[in-house]
């Protein structure tokens, strides 16, 4: 079976270049796919909402800045060059005092607000 993907090129994906194309926060954009997983970049600042992803783990990789991920019974702090995998079904809330640039890795179709929905929900499968 031939896989004709419109973004199949022999060139590197530069995180900072892709991030420079983002004009809004809290709106993840896809930069690559691997099997059923998407690599998404996003800029965030301030508080998000409590949510869970019942079907999948979610990986946060900090490309620039400092991120705190709150849990009901604790928190984890991530700085540039660090990552954390939030296990599926664990309620969490990202927070960034100043703008943070993130790489997210999650299966295609995962909604950024998990089971909560609402106005913070970003469209899926938007490429940059």
Automatic annotation (TrEMBL):
Name of the molecule in the record: Mannose-6-phosphate isomerase-like protein (Cupin superfamily)
Segments forming domain Cupin type-2: 46-101
Pfam families: Cupin_2
Superkingdom per UniProt: Bacteria
CDD domains the record matches: cupin_YdbB-like (cd02226)
MF term (GO), any: isomerase activity
Keyword entries, A-Z: Isomerase
InterPro entries xrefs: Cupin_2, PKS_Associated_Protein, RmlC-like_jellyroll, RmlC_Cupin_sf
